[in-house]
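Deviations from the work plan: none for this task. Representative record:
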Amino acid sequence: MDILKLTALELAHEIKIGKITCVEAVKEVYKAYSEKDSSINAYISLDLDYALKRANEIQKRIDGGDIRSELAGVPVAIKDNICTKGLKTTCGSKMLGNFLPFYNAAVTEKLEQADMIILGKTNMDEFAMGATGDTSFFGAVKNPLDHTRLSGGSSSGSAAAVAANEAIISLGSDTGGSVRQPASYCGLFGFKPTYGLVSRYGLVAYASSLDQIGPIAKDANDCMAIMKIISGNDPLDSTSLNADINFEDRENIDFSGIKIAVPKQCAVMSSAADKFKAMGASVDYIEIPFFDYAVAAYYIIATAEASSNLSRFDGVKYGYKTDNYGSLAEMYRKTRSEGFGSEVKKRILLGTFVLSSGYYDAYYKKALKIKELVKNNFSKLFEEYDFILTPTTVSSAPKPEELKNDSLRRYTDDVYTVPVNLAGLPAVSFPYGKDENGMPLGAQLIGQRLSDVKLLKTAKAFTEVVR
Amino acid sequence: MNYETVIGLEVHVELATESKIFCSCTTKFGGAPNTHCCPICTGMPGTLPTLNRKVLDYAVTAGLALNCEIQKNNRFDRKNYFYPDLPKAYQISQLYMPFARNGKVEITTRSGVTKNIGIHEIHMEEDAGKLIHSETDGITLTDYNRCGVPLIEIVSEPDFRSADEVIAYLEKIKSIFEYLGISDCKMQEGSMRCDVNLSVREVGSETLGTRTEMKNLNSFRGIERAIKFEAERQIRAIEAGEKIVQETRRWDDLKGVGYAMRTKENAQDYRYFPEPDIPPIIISDDTVNRIITAMPEFADTKAKRYNEQFGLSKGDAELVAGSKHLAELFEKTVELTGNPKEVRYWLVGQIFYLMNEKGIAPEDIKLSPEMFAEFVNIASSDRINKQAGKIVFEAMFMSPERFDIEGFIKENGLEQVDDTETIRSAVREVINNNPKTVQQYLSGQTKVVGFFVGQVMKATGGKAKPDTVNKLVNEELNKL
């Protein structure tokens, strides 16, 4: 049996029935890592000793019939902006290159309690800013399906690790598409839950009002299984929801009566839309003009929050600090100039500008209004439709040189993913086909608030029919 | 030209909740550096704030007590600036939607003038840490124990015209918050801090002059001196034809001078924006009503009641009611003895006297109502007279821990003498020794009776019962 080909649920099953041990699973995944990661660069840190120690403990429990979750014994990789006690959490930045948290993120705690095995921390665009996977201080992540192409980002390593079989399943974070887009480039499932469903405690913030942790996995059921583990109200996160949502519900969905809207500009989705039709859903092509405004509003709100969230990295308490300085002001300036990469600095400057006195109303306040409009427009659409179907990305994974002379494209490629974060909605990206180069294409289904389970079931039904 | 000073205050008050505003760390004052903190209040990456509901309760209580309109919709904002004592590099505060607006406080100055001071708004925020500068090696260290201690900032209207009014206002707020138990308002420990916005203008002018803001004022005396200094500085500048610059000034209490820190042009841009980590907070009518119902009686009402119910003079009543500690001591002792007249006698006569004499603050009085009551019961019996009572009271008041009233009276032989024969012989002796005064009495100067009474009291060591002495002096004199 090829352990690496199994989904997380399949592997958990094999472990449960005793065909595979957790230790074997960890070793097998580690073998793939040692063979491939020098070229892929999916991980920033990997702690094999800890993983093996955990695997042994968990195996003992499983042998004794103590199975703590559906995914007990399964190795998992997590994005390096999710705090892990005693394991470096760098955010892909020189600034936190040696940062060792003494506390766990809420999701880290939950994965451990569920007896999943945290193998390591995945590479990412610095501080989750970027959609290319090439802004990390620790080097660019390569797309495992074609090393000449970008992995996508910012959860670049989380997607690449699963695609390269260096992980069975992983967690990323999604502020404007950072889970869905790399999942799409790497031919995987990427799920962005309803805002507030997963605690953000211990997720190093990029844009607090938009950030949400989500899984990257081989199929929809794996997403469901890990969502069951990581979701739920957290008193330490005031924005976390107290929602009654059942990720154990894996019943097949009945497509009769399901109504799907496709934006008119997304004619490229017609083949996928036809498949939903064939399953019994109805599909309408409609005008959705507000998508275009969302990107602009997104970059104002996200950078504004980021400029504040990243201010704490000032050389005083932890992380990088410049060697030579005369005054406090110079220490701040040099630490931050040397510690942050150019994309992060660009966004901090933009965010500082839009919040500064005299510009606040013109930019930040206006962006908040657009955010409300986007939210309301979505709500109206969901009065009539169950889902909105779009491509996840404008194209399949590009080559770095394609973006070289088109820096604006680094931002506008997010057009289908960012409105979802602005409105706090759930969305899933799933592979629906391949382009002329054999690179995967991702479809995105957007659902209304708390329709997370229904969304994942719909994506699952689609892939089963295609198969 | 005649000038008037126009002052507005920003008063920061630490709320006396047990835990901090956004985490469960203790708010206790002191402690070894960085021992009262956690990943949340030190702003470690990924951590999030959650509002302590008790802080909201205390804040609303303060707002209601200062007659504010409590705002239903509330939100926190981030105030961004870099400083090593602020670990997140932003302070969570309220700019756009403060929880209380449009209040007022009635003050009475030492000279007896009563007026209303408007409250513009009150908002909640978190405190910052403190920097410790090492003198020996030039290193600056940070102590984050105060980070996240809850504060409210009370912003007044520019309604003050003198330092006197400012002090009366601060004392009033201190009294109210003490009664509410929401803050101890100790300036020396920083649980009450005050920034003074001051401008001067020609008397009769309607427009406000350019103001300066003075920071770092940490005693009532310092505030008084700083106001005087700054008002005089501004008047001198205007008289000399200079323009007042809008600036932040720092008061150096040791040197007794203020100096400019930064001008408006160099003012920081705090880039306030809504705190995304804390959802909007609704203060419901139910919450407001619950807090109103639980409001204690404040100094003003109490003083009025003491005056009407217990016959304290208006001034005495205000003094007692002005301090929660004194008021509690008074009311409990009255309750235990059922003798308000006697309690009032000792409280006003002796406690006020001793507080003044020994420089004791009301909150530092250690005498318990139980002991005070025991004393009052003894003093109102025939056991000791007033003069002996004063001796006992002072000893008891100064060190009430395990004080034995009965034992003290016995040891010092202070028990009242009411033995007719002993007193009569003392009276006779005094009469015999003062033939001249006797002559005066016989010639009709009856007021010399007091002299004889005094002499007899002296002769009996102050222990004789005054009524009996009086009676016997008159009897013996009439026999002559």
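The mean pLDDT of chain A is 96.
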